[in-house]
Amino acid sequence: MIKNVSIRWSDKIVPAILISVTLGFIALFLVLPLVSIFYEAFRKGYGLYFASFKEEYAWPAVRLTLLCAAIAVPLNVVFGVVAAWCIAKFNFWGKNVLITLIDLPFAVSPVIAGLVFVLAFGQQSAFGAWLLEHDIKIIFALPGVILATIFVTVPFVARELIPLMQEQGTLEEEAAVALGAGGWQIFWRVTLPNIKWGLLYGVLLCNARAMGEFGAVSVVSGHIRGSTNTMPLYIETLYAGYDAVSAFSVATLLAALALVTLAAKSVVEWKVKRKTGADRPAAVAR
After folding, report:
1. Whether this model's pTM surpasses 0.90
2. Is the dihedral of CA 175, 177, 183, 188 positive or negative?
């Protein structure tokens, strides 16, 4: 009897402790900083908040951030789909090497990645003299910022699709080939419908990282206001210049992006669970 009571007590108290610790950690390290951003941005009134976006270099930073994301995300979508297709559907020499290279941006510090681009395309590099001779600017210019953004966002789409496509196997594609379907028909009518939610999930994560990247972009950009400053760099410049209200005001845009990304992520996960649940009875019936 005493043993049963102690078991029931531990069954209640242990989960309560774990939940409390988890909620406390989330409140301290996630919710509190997010609330602080909006509080500091609006603390001195709405007029000063909106005035922060009328500064000369505010919208160029926003436009550059959107431009980098608009270039990096589609390129990574194409690469991610192709890489996942190759890895999941075919066996070839060097597959593990390709998977390792896709994961490389996760393992390398973004600052180191930016430094590598400086060493590769800077004036002191092997290509530096040729680039200078042809008046091509990569480092401390827009191309360098885009290259750095692409590098840090490479894994997101591919890593979402690879396990998904490996789990699905190749039976449906092989059946489509047997029925006479071509390569594009198989992709658009068989593969893409099966991976659409995983692809959308990867795109959301890729876009969020592209807009929020700081380390690699900071190294290759040169912090040129109105030219190579993205939103994270512009926020850092404002805060370093003791313009805290403007810094937090611009930061609310990135925070709002994070909230939208989380909401979209939740919708995608709900859709996936709903689709999986709907497919199970059909599978059982078959």
Report:
1. no
2. negative
Q: What angle do CA 118, 228, 115 make, to 5 degrees?
A: 20
Sign of the CA dihedral running 67, 73, 79, 82 = negative
Chain segment 205-259, per-residue pLDDT in tens? 999 999 999 999 999 998 888 899 999 999 999 999 889 999 999 999 989 988 8
* Residues present in the chain in total: 286
Q: Which residues contact 190 (CB under 8 A, 6 or more apart)?
A: 172, 173, 176, 181
Using alpha carbons, list the distances in angstroms from residue 230 to 67, 73, 223.
10, 16, 9
Residues 6+ apart with CB under 8 A from 217: 68, 114, 145, 148, 149, 230, 232, 233
Under 8 Å between Cβ of 237 and 225: yes
Per DSSP, which regions of 179-263 are E strands? none
Sequence letter at residue 274: R
135 token code pair: 């008046």
Kindly report the number of other CB atoms within 10 A of residue 152's CB atom.
24
